[in-house]
Amino acid sequence: MVRSRERISHRGRKLRIGLIVTKTAREKLGDQLLVDIYKETNIPYVAEFGEYLAEDVKSNELQGLLVVSEKDEQNFVSSVDEKLGISPLAVEVLPLSWFIGKSPSYNKALLKAYVRKLSKQDFVYRLQPVKTTTVTRRSLIKFRLYEYKVYPVLFDALTFEREINTLIQSCPKGLIAKAVEGVTITSPQDCTGCGYCTSKGYLGYLEMPSLTTEQFISFVNEIVRNYNAEGKSLGLVFTSDKTVSLEEGLFPLLVPNVASVHDSFVFATFAAGLIPVILYDPKDDIAKKRVEEIPDVFPGTELKIVKVKHGDKIPLVENKLPKSEIPEGVALTRYRRRSLYLWALEEMDKKVKVNPEVEVPGVYFVEVNPDKCVLCGVCVRACQMLVPDMKTVNDLTTLDYNIPYCIGSQRCVKNCPENAIKVERLAKFKELQKVRVNQAKVTKCRYCGKPIGTVKIKGKVDSLLIQYGYPGTAQYTDVCNECKQKELTKMWLESYLNATGKKKVL
Questions:
Q1: Fewer CB in a 10 Å sphere around the end CB: N or C, the chain?
Q2: What is the torsion angle, in degrees rounded to the nearest 10, for the CA atoms of residue 223, residue 228, residue 233 and residue 239?
Q3: What is the DSSP letter of 133?
């Protein structure tokens, strides 16, 4: 067995992962497969369980472990921080039963997918141990009065409010609060780690450390790249149940709870060429609620999202979709999961016949009345998703709305002073595009020629000034502030000089 490798350089934030197998798992998987994993994934360590493990983990600077075992390794995981200096949250244990009776290509694809997923699980090191909720005699003897719990973490600081209110309202226990950097979990020890809040966010700035957007994309891409069995229908099973029995072609993705599965993950699974299967516990109320919220089909098609209760047999998955890798850059944009969602819609439109008249869940259509809109720009400043975009090029000001990014917050509607905007329905598939809703010529200062707004703004201001009894002032709405100041100063001086009998200023 190979047990060490020189430290290698990786782009981005990645944990150094080791692959550990039991003796039985090694016999079933075969040394050749393990050597292939070692070479093809560039992980620094692959070995069988042994007394040398602690020393090897330290010398190889491992930060996470992927374990394949026929046993429940809970005791090993719970003490891995003491024995190996690794966070228990950075250890993933896969049951050997998932690999028995499968082809080497399936086993290789599944192992490589988990290696890649675990290598991007750096968020677990943001989580601090919390006080244990139960105290046993054994824990007292060991003075272990803390435990590791998975709870949501902020992906990055928010510079403006986009999904904060939605996240705060989504937590079943009310544990999310507004903080300087965005949102925070007020009582990690009380968090169940269901991840429901993360599935309700539009953009994915609140993430489950063991199921981030980047991890999902990496996992799916490894399956797409490495499994090419002809005639096999491929499916991705979102599950927290390690006892589930799966046929070859169905790849299990362990999640904290299916309540943490975002719509974009489900749709992107389809677009990558896999059928999404959601395996849930009907006794778990929050999981059941989330499963009911997830659409039953991919928008505009008859492709069903398979939803299966624990204990029920997963039906035969039929899949003729061509495979596609998910662009990993979509998770790096400011829209993150919304970008992933839209990529899935665009990619599926290339693969299947999509009904253009079907409404798309979570995407809203904005109507702007150009006769009322004066291009004041209030909607641009009010929108949390930056849907409206106003630009001035040469002598023309335009207002565009990027419909695919509208989440229906109604901020533009509530703030529009002209009541020119309506958001009353979901957008149809054919309406997922950037549309021009209004445009007008630029008004220029009559003295210096500087642009000072649109003719629509000038007309609106003129009418208001006249309405409120200031017709004289209305004569100067086509003058910039600098020239207006000069003219007012000139008028004041002339008035002063005339009053004092002195010569008129030329």
A1: C
A2: -20
A3: S
- For range 177-202, the mean pLDDT: 88
Question: In which element (H, E) is residue 437 found?
Answer: strand 434-444
Contact 411, 383 (CB under 8 A): yes
The residue-averaged pLDDT of 182-200 equals 90
- In this structure, what DSSP letter does residue 282 have? T
Reading across the β-sheet that carries 45-48, which strands appear in turn? Answer: 45-48, 17-21, 64-69, 91-95
Tell me: pLDDT of 278 over 90: yes
**CATH classification (class only), 359-442:** alpha beta
177 contacts 183 by C-beta, under 8 angstroms: yes
CB 133 within 8 A of CB 189: yes
**Are 1-148 and 359-442 equal in CATH topology?**
no
Q: Residue 421 above 70 pLDDT? A: yes
Question: Residue ranges of the domains in the chain?
Answer: 1-148, 149-355, 359-442, 445-500
The CA distance from 69 to 421, in Å, is 59
Alpha helices, DSSP H, located in 148-212: 164-170, 196-200
What pLDDT is recorded for position 5? 39
Structure tokens that stand for 39 in this block: 């070479």
* Contacts (Cβ under 8 Å, ≥6 apart) of 219: 113, 114, 116, 117, 253
Give the pLDDT confidence of 145-167 residue by residue, as tens digits.
667 788 888 887 655 567 788 88
- Are the C-beta atoms of 414 and 422 separated by less than 8 Å? no
Q: Residues 36-57: pLDDT tens digits?
A: 999 999 999 999 999 899 999 9
Q: In terms of DSSP H, where are the helices of 149-212?
A: 164-170, 196-200
Show the tokens assigned to 175. 């544990």
Which CATH number describes the domain made up of 1-148? 3.40.50
Cβ-contact 152, 200 below 8 angstroms = no
| Gyration radius of the chain over CA positions | 30
Across the chain, mean pLDDT equals 87
In this predicted structure, the answer to whether residue 340 has a pLDDT above a threshold of 90 is: yes
How far does the chain reach from its first CA to its final CA, in angstroms? 97
Task: Give every CB contact of residue 506 below 8 A, 6+ residues apart in sequence.
Answer: none
Provide mean pLDDT across the span 470-476: 66
DSSP 409: -
